[in-house]
Amino acid sequence: MNALWFGAHGLDSGVLLALFLHFGMLSLLAIGGAITTAPDMQRYVVGQHGWLTDAQFTSSVAIAQAAPGPNLLFVAVVGWNIAGLAGVVATLAGSLLPSTTLALAASRYGDRRRDSRAMKAFSAGMAPLTLGLLLATGWVLTSPVRDSWGALLLVPFTVLMLVKTKLSPVWLVAVGAVVGALGWAG
To answer: What are phi and psi of 115, to 5 degrees?
Structure first.
């Protein structure tokens, strides 16, 4: 039971508190969703603490993105891979509580001032910020295979298909899986 709750690493409450606090801080920066903070999550859990490898982090994101459900699932998979069920609770609570509280307060404030010039400017300014964060996420997630010609071709192909068609991203994940299985990106 202890391995299930705390994971294979047998992590202590200090690690769980660190996960909760860091993911909580990131939740307040997650303009465009939790996936936009993946670069810093990767820096924190892989680079700074070594709790996961680059490949484990990227796999955690890929598995969660391929599964049905909310985009936030990758946070739970990262938490699971670090500290079992306790890691899931720490990362999800950290990711959900601060941002949900702030979003509720901001939406109530914004609803009352929807037509103000400041609210329109704020909304217009969020689009390029979100795009930049998503591009940074893509850069981090391709790091394990970035030196591969298949990956270099697959990334722009995927972006083009998402922009120009209504093709489900699941099919693009399948294309990526085939490219990887054939050894062209890895």
So the answer is: -90, 5
Name which of 26, 50, 53 is nearest 143 in CA terms: 53
Place of tokens 């860091």: 22
**Alpha helical stretches, state H, 113-168:** 117-141, 149-164
Q: Using CA atoms, how far apart are residues 114 and 118, in angstroms rounded to an integer? A: 9
The parent domain of residue 182 ranges over: 142-186
Residue 46 in domain: yes
* Sequential pLDDT tens for the chain (186 residues): 555 555 555 567 889 999 999 999 999 888 777 888 999 999 999 999 999 999 999 989 888 888 888 888 999 999 999 999 999 999 999 999 998 898 899 888 888 888 888 888 887 887 787 777 777 877 777 777 777 887 778 878 888 888 888 888 788 888 888 888 888 776
* Closest of 2, 10, 84, 95 to residue 44, by C-alpha: 95
Q: Which of 125, 160, 175 is the last residue of a domain?
A: 125
The model carries a pTM of 0.63
